[in-house]
Amino acid sequence: MSAVGSTRGGSSFLSALLATSAFATIVAGGAAHAQAAQTPPSPGSDDSVVTEIIVTGSRIRSEGFTAPTPTQMLGTADLERAAQPNIFTAITQLPSLQGSSGATTGTFSTSSGQQGLSSFSLRGLGTIRTLTLLDGQRVVPANVTGVPDISLFPQLLVERVDVVTGGASASYGSDAVGGVVNFITNKKFVGLKANVMTGVTTYGDNHQWLAQVAAGKNFMDDRLHVQVSGEYDWEEGVPAGGFGEDAPGSRDWYTTATLVNRGITNDGSPQYLYREHAQAYQYTKYGLISSGPLQGTAFDISGNPFQFQYGGGGVPSKAANGAVSGCYTNGGFCVGGDLSGNVGVGTSLQSRIKRLNTYTRVGFDLDANNEIYATFNAARVESSNQPNPGAATTGLTMSCSNPYLPASVVAACAANGITTFTFGTSNALLPRNISVHPTRTQYRGVIGADGKFSALGTEWRYDAYFEHGENTTNIHVNDILLTPRYRAAVQATLVNGQIVCADPVARANGCVPINIFGGQRPSDAALAYITPKNGPYQHSVQKQDVASINFSGEPFALPAGPVSLAFGGEWRKEQYHVQGDPYGDGNTDSPNTADYPADPILNAAGANWFAGNYHSGAGKYSVKEAYAEVNLPLVNSDAVGRANLNMAGRWTDYSTSGTVYTWKIGATWDTPIDGVRLRAVTSRDVRAPNLSELFAAPVTTTLPNFTIPSNGKPPAGQPSSGSLTVLQNVVGNPDLKPEIAKNVTIGAVLSNPQWLPGFSVSVDWYNIVLNGGISSLGAQQIVNFCYAGLTQFCGAFNLNPPSAFVNSQTFNLASIKTSGFDIESSYRFELPSVPGRFTIRGLATNVHKFVTNPGIPGAVAVDSAGQNSGATPDWKVLAVQSWDNDRFAISVQERWFSDGRFGGTTTEYVECKPGSCPVSTGSRPTIDYNHMSGATYVDVSASYKFGNGLQLYGKVDNLLDRDPTPSPQTNTGLDANPALYDLLGRFYHLGLRYSF
Asked: What are the UniProt keywords, alphabetically (predicted)?
């Protein structure tokens, strides 16, 4: 246990003290961002860098222009101080970024395809609603959901990252509902710089090695600019723990925290109980008879039977349903007892990463004001993770005549008059655990031109580019069960004195029996049969083409100043195709390839693997867009101040869903009060459905005992009642429309007042309402809604045998409403008696509400603000205090978020005590304990410059080794939330930088 501990019962005094310090920093200020060749922007604003006139929150490019949309900025010094092998990790520490994906998220997954994928999420709205740009340009997606992988960006040449914390669809198009993250590179870098770094956790794992180098040189009288960069990053990852509560390394915080479902909703007591050390009683590490007269008979590693120790004094009922008295039937949990078979901690805490990246930019000055250029980025990231150990299997019907069964159990079968029993196992007998290996390879090329020209008596700026990008993702899953073969191999029998597989068809096609009772390692032949070398496989390719041209100028002036105008157009094409392996994908005939030979016991429809059943598909769409933006100076006087009105509109035509319009209206007012600026902006923003939602590869599953509503209104030609077997086809929906969002932000900025030079603070209130959110429905829901009179769902099924089916699709049903506050402050100062400069910076985000309504009849909207099991705590704070001079620099950083509660996107738990609980419902279930302590993480960094361009630096993340607070599952999964909490522990970084 760490020095501070997990503070599960409430925040410790030290955590509270540090949290108070962090809030004090918000008030006092934080690190300013003045760089050597740029003017520092006010906190929370997007004042342009004078040398480049880049304003990410707007298309207007004009000196002195101030956009009304708040923007948070991280400069080179901030990124270097973070000392991370992937600058994505440094950026996601900003409080406004909530729910981003990275190397520590998704590691429990086999089939998602997003392991190791670094993508941003602003405002908790998800990675699909945040637009990420590189030098203001779109980047080819690294996943069919349309999101890029930040780890594939060239990182050493990034000199600034702008995070626009408001809707920006009118300026940049689709996906900018939550905002925009724009990486701005140094396009004129001359010289050489390099960076090497290593790191390791206090537990001796996740060793890291990073090497980066960049060079730039001018030729032809400084008209030709050439830049190249390359980097190699290797991160060992944190390997999975084992079975039971054996966390990786010497970590001891894992406690199998679980929400136990009593299954009773109306007796005045809580339906759910928070419990640690939960035990699933349907399986054990080496096998358990889980129902019937022999229930409770477990097997040790040698295959010897013994009486299983149920937690909570549980006693097996010996009934057919496998109930255990003293335990909880719903979910099948006891508390305590023999936990050795639990599998939740057997998940990688961080994926293993190997990353390679190269980048080249060549620019040529046609004259002093115009440049043509080309860039090329080639990058690859390989990752691997373990989603769980073994492959826990329950509900197996085993024969008492199985020759591997101990004689005492065979005799017990006979004594109790049974010939079969129900069996469950963690499959710890498998020598190797499941591992997932995604590899993403990206090629991206851009040719473009930018500069300025004179027309109509004024100067205009322009930029134009064409981009083509391709991302190839290959996913391999190793050592995973091929389920039909596994089920055949565990059913053994004797034939002519030899133990063989009982199914003659399986036997004729290579089945090799395994002994499932105990921990005896299967033979190599058996392993090759149940976990073939050629496991689940997916090959996908995403392609993107973009052509864009933009103009900005000041065509005329009003009494208050020049009018600024920007306009332009864009064409974009997105396409993908994906191919899964035959055993997972399925086809009309049995698979018959060299790697996946035909096998009659496999399901020709696919879904044969324990997990990782990838499916084939393809799709494409194109977009045409045009926009205009104008900034009108309204007043400019000493008495009234300076006020501007900023407006923009965009016309967008999708090949799939037609035309949609977006707009924004905003204003800024620099008041006569010293340093005080007011700003407000409202916008209509969109997110177009992505390729996966439109053209998802079909996944077919069989639903037995599907119920036809008997009290509804069946559509013509459909049955009015009954029960039957149907095929559920999970497919894309090409008729989806864009999601529509309304954004409002109102704020005030105090910047560099005369009474406190160097101090700035901003406060902004935001409100986002998203309608037509894309969400999915299950087969039963679709049929029920149709029979209830919602005719829009009636075309998705046919319930007439023998080919009854339901197409489970996504629809524009959901809505999200979120609001809160952003606070940012900075203060840079010097003390007469102390050499060097002090800088303080603080950022905070409050989520007042985050209400999700699934849009389904009868469903209740849920407010997930403050649910620390998710990504939107009530408060999230980043505070930095630093001091530096010409050689030394030292900084302390606090990352803090507030206490919260359990919950989900469709559930909001109601805490109550026995005897006082209301009736528990699906969206408002009752619970006996509903508290998740927040966390404070302290990071310390220091550096020393030797004077010859060499700098030594070091950093310690999570100095106090703060353990994660349990985030209980309703099963025995990993009871921690990597979206908020640090799962790795104290981390040491050490590196060298060189610049010349």
From this structure: Cell outer membrane, Membrane, Receptor, Signal, TonB box, Transmembrane, Transmembrane beta strand, Transport
Task: Check if the beta carbon of residue 33 is closer than 8 Å to that of residue 77.
Answer: yes
For 287, 398, 733, 781, 788, the CA distances from 807, given in Å and listed in that order, are 38, 35, 10, 11, 18
**CB atoms inside a 10 Å sphere around CB 831:** 10
Per-residue DSSP letter, 688: -
Element housing 88 (H / E)? helix 87-91
What is the C-alpha to C-alpha distance for residues 149 and 183, in angstroms, rounded to an integer? 13
Rounded Cα gap, residues 361 and 216, in angstroms: 9
Give the count of beta carbons closer than 10 Å to the beta carbon of residue 304: 13
Angle (CA) 837-840-842 rounded to 5° is 165
* Separation CA 968–CA 960 (nearest Å): 24
Do residues 734 and 813 touch, judged by C-beta distance below 8 A?
no
The stretches of 306-438 forming alpha helices (DSSP H) are 407-415
Q: In this structure, what are the phi and psi dihedrals at residue 171, rounded to the nearest 5 degrees? A: -90, -40
Query: What are 758's two structure tokens?
Result: 């160097």
* Alpha carbons 588 and 574: distance in angstroms, whole number: 29
d(CA 949, CA 956): 24
Nearest CA to 360 among 232, 450, 225? 225
Q: Which of 961, 974, 980, 801 is nearest to 875 (CA)?
A: 980
328: Cβ–Cβ under 8 A, 6 or more apart, which residues? 260, 261, 262, 263, 273, 334
Coil, helix or strand for 862? strand
pLDDT digits (tens, 9 = 90+) for 68-115: 999 999 999 999 999 999 999 999 999 999 999 998 888 888 877 788
Q: Give the residue from 495, 524, 521, 520 showing the smallest Cα distance to 508.
A: 495
Place of tokens 């977009």: 623
- Pairing verdict, β 352-367 and 224-235: antiparallel
Express each pLDDT in 527-566 by its tens digit. Answer: 999 999 999 999 999 999 999 999 999 999 999 999 999 9
194-238 confidence digits (pLDDT tens): 999 999 999 999 999 999 999 999 999 999 999 999 999 999 999
SS3 794: helix
Dihedral angle over CA of 150, 153, 156, 157, nearest 10: -120
For 329-388, what is each residue's pLDDT tens digit?
777 889 999 999 988 888 899 999 999 999 999 999 999 999 999 999 999 999 999 988
Nearest to 234 by CA among 86, 376, 108, 394: 86
Going by C-beta distance under 8 Å and a sequence separation of 6 or more, which residues neighbour residue 573?
Answer: 543, 544, 545, 546, 620, 621, 622, 623
Alpha-carbon separation of residue 585 from 413, 493, 534, 698 (angstroms): 40, 32, 14, 9
Strand ranges inside 655-784, DSSP E:
658-670, 676-687, 699-708, 722-730, 739-751, 759-776
Mean pLDDT over the full length of the chain: 90
| Residue 533 backbone zone (phi > 0: left; psi -120 to 50: alpha; other: beta) | alpha
CATH class of 541-939: mainly beta
The DSSP result for 106-118, as a single string, is STT-SSSS-TT--
The alpha-helical segments, DSSP class H, found in 480-578 are 483-489, 504-508, 524-530
pLDDT digits (tens, 9 = 90+) for 423-436: 999 999 999 999 99
Indicate the residue type of 469. G
DSSP state of 819: E
Q: What distance in Å separates the CA atoms of residue 95 and residue 844, rounded to the nearest whole number?
A: 6
Band of residue 40 on the pLDDT scale cut at 50, 70, 90: very low
Q: Could you give the 3-state DSSP secondary structure of residue 663? A: strand
Helix (H, G, I), strand (E, B) or coil at 808: strand
d(CA 313, CA 931): 27
H or E element: which one contains 17?
helix 13-28
